[in-house]
């Protein structure tokens, strides 16, 4: 029996209006009894083309959205500098911030991130917005650089070629806004992880020193994220351990562990563990008597014992005791 249309009793089949409908049509057609292959009719070809256009229209709409956002961001001077009123200037700022927010959401999609760069979006961020006088635009620009660069080598290469690494390190080191510094660190992480050219730029620009200063800041979130990035860089690039030891990184990490206890210490201890693992020079530096690290670690084990929320930090302490001092926490002192 024929299916629908003029030859059957069922109403004509509606053409699918999106990709999901197109797939559903394919499934439905696949359940029909096999028959001889016939050339595609003009009508069927037409609805298939229309369905494909509809299915991919969303992607085209997103490209148009990015173009519209970039058109809004393109003017080089904010409203107040054009002699506009304070209300108009505030509206201009909010529109720019909104455009950057929309772009960040769209560029979570890797294809959109690549298209954003083809539209010269990354150049606009690097040359105008990363160092904009408005902190709300600076942190959004840094966030967008990181969002675009995640796991997209071509985007990473373009951002590096445009000088983003130098500007991001400057923001991380010196910007008065906590939000800007945190977003700059996020973008730096996206440019150095699994990207050799990014790591080399980071090293040439003394990035490890900037990272250490971030760990010594008063911003808890920045301290935690900096220590976490350091730990991961040491895991991914053990060849950098000698450089870090020559910078006095062991001594600086131990000094951070001696500060008032916080959840941040877990990541510092993790970084120190990564630094000394399979690296005798790091072990020797941890054993320096003036650091009194063995005593510090045993005291910390005593403090943390029985507190489930600090289990990972306790594990790092015990690992360091084993690696550097061939010892375990003193059970008798821990039970007191």
UniProtKB/TrEMBL annotation:
Which SUPFAM superfamilies does this one have?
Answer: ARM repeat
Annotated region described as Disordered, given as residue ranges: 1-40
**Molecular function GO terms recorded:** adenyl-nucleotide exchange factor activity; molecular sequestering activity; ubiquitin protein ligase binding
For this UniProt record, give its keywords in alphabetical order, as a comma-separated list.
Phosphoprotein, Repeat
Cite the SMART domains for this sequence: ARM
- How does the record describe its quaternary structure? Interacts with the ATP-binding domain of HSPA1A. Detected in a ternary complex containing STUB1, HSPA1A and HSPBP1. Interacts with PGLYRP1; this interaction blocks the cytotoxic activity of the PGLYRP1-HSPA1A complex.
How is this protein named in the record? Hsp70-binding protein 1
**Family matches, as InterPro entries:** ARM-like (IPR011989), ARM-type_fold (IPR016024), Armadillo (IPR000225), Hsp70_NEF-Inhibitors (IPR050693), Nucleotide_exch_fac_Fes1 (IPR013918)
UniProt key word Phosphoprotein:
yes
């Amino acid at each position: 029996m024929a299916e629908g249309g003029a030859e059957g009793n069922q109403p004509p089949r509606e053409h699918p209006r999106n990709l999901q409908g197109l797939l559903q049509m394919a499934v439905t057609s696949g359940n029909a009894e096999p028959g001889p292959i016939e050339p595609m009719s003009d009508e069927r070809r037409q609805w298939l083309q229309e369905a494909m256009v509809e299915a991919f229209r969303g992607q085209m709409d997103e490209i148009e959205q990015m173009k519209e956002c970039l058109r809004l961001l393109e003017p080089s001077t904010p409203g107040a500098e054009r002699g506009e009123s304070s209300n108009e200037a505030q509206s201009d700022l909010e529109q720019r911030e909104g455009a950057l927010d929309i772009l960040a959401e769209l560029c979570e999609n890797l294809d959109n991130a690549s298209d954003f760069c083809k539209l010269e979006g990354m150049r606009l961020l690097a040359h105008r917005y990363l160092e904009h006088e408005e902190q709300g635009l600076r942190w959004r620009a840094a966030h967008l650089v990181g969002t675009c660069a995640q796991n997209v080598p071509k985007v990473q290469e373009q951002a590096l070629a445009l000088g983003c690494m130098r500007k991001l390190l400057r923001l991380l080191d010196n910007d008065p806004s906590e939000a800007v510094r945190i977003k700059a660190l996020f973008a730096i992480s996206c440019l150095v992880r699994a990207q050799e050219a990014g790591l080399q730029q980071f090293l040439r620009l003394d990035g490890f020193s900037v990272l250490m200063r971030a760990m010594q800041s008063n911003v808890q979130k920045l301290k935690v994220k900096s220590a976490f990035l350091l730990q991961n860089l040491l895991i991914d690039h053990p060849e950098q351990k000698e450089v870090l030891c020559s910078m006095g990184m062991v001594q600086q990490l131990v000094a951070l562990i001696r500060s008032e206890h916080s959840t941040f210490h877990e990541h510092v201890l993790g970084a120190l563990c990564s630094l000394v693992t399979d690296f005798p020079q790091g072990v020797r530096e941890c054993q320096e008597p003036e650091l009194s690290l063995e005593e510090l670690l045993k005291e910390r084990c005593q403090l943390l014992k029985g507190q489930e929320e600090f289990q990972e930090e306790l594990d790092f302490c015990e690992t360091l005791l084993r690696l550097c001092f061939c010892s375990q926490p003193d059970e008798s002192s821990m039970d007191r």
